[in-house]
Amino acid sequence: MERWRGILKVPLFPGSRGHYNVAASLCISTSSQTPTVPSMNAIFFNGDRVKGTGNPVIERLSDLERIAEVIVSKLGENVNAWVIEASKFNGPFAVYKDFIPSVNKWGEPNSYDPTGFPASSSAVSLLSNCLNEVKNTLSTGIEEQSLSEAARSSCFSQPNTILFGFSKGGSVLNQLVTELAFSEIKPSISSQDKNEIIPTSKESLLNSITEIHYVDVGLNCSGAYITDKDIITRISKLISERPLGIRFVLHGTPRQWRDSMRVWIGKEKDTMVHLLDTESQKSEGKLSVCERCYFANKPANMQMHFEVIESMDIS
């Protein structure tokens, strides 16, 4: 098995004015040079832009392709990695308006609302457009049939999905978690979802999520973490009725969790951990949560905020 790596610039929907930059690192068949079904799809939502620091660590880990390489190195060569940057920026501030419709001009969420399932629908559409772009790049002179055959030849069937949200990208995770809580997911996987390289519907995306990693998330307003008890209770009930459990991992540094100017970040993190831990005790192992602090004995700085991407333990 080989890999295809690159930066894709794709619209969310045909005719969309805005384009997303997505770094992809995908499994491809050595023989046919076509995409194959991975063991899982890792989707990483990036945060605000930080430029001109002169810090080589920050510069390296601001690069979307480098982040994709880090994810693959941690999860293994059978994974597909997708690193998504917001389509719109207000100065350095990422604005995920397609995923979280209720945001202010700086991209900060006003609320998380499952109505219309915007985050899961947008994620499915974006991944589909990305995959089609990769296929078009690879498949010069190759019949579409061979693409399907490559997918069927994989030893995997329905790939799981593992989500990462870095910094402001954590707000997209919160919207997805909210949508998951209000979804009506059937416990069995339909035959049409099998042997798909990526989820092909918002239902199959939400049903495939097995891990959710918050990576040093933070906002300049409330809403960095889910603190709504009803959302967490609904998640717990949902996974009790489906085959796959979900593991939440909250990775953080003093840069966010101990910020004296934004004390709500640490408080929200503690609240979410408490709510998840309470529900996990009722879930017979299907729901789990852990928090991991990095560089705990160092003064807070911007470098550790990015360095956690390489340092995070996702085992």
UniProtKB/TrEMBL annotation:
Q: Which GO terms describe its cellular component?
A: mitochondrion
- Taxonomic superkingdom: Eukaryota
Kindly give the InterPro entries that the UniProt entry links to this protein.
Answer: C2orf69_mit
Question: What's a Pfam family this protein contains?
Answer: C2orf69
Q: What is this protein called?
A: Uncharacterized protein
**Which organism is this entry from?**
Artemisia annua (Sweet wormwood)
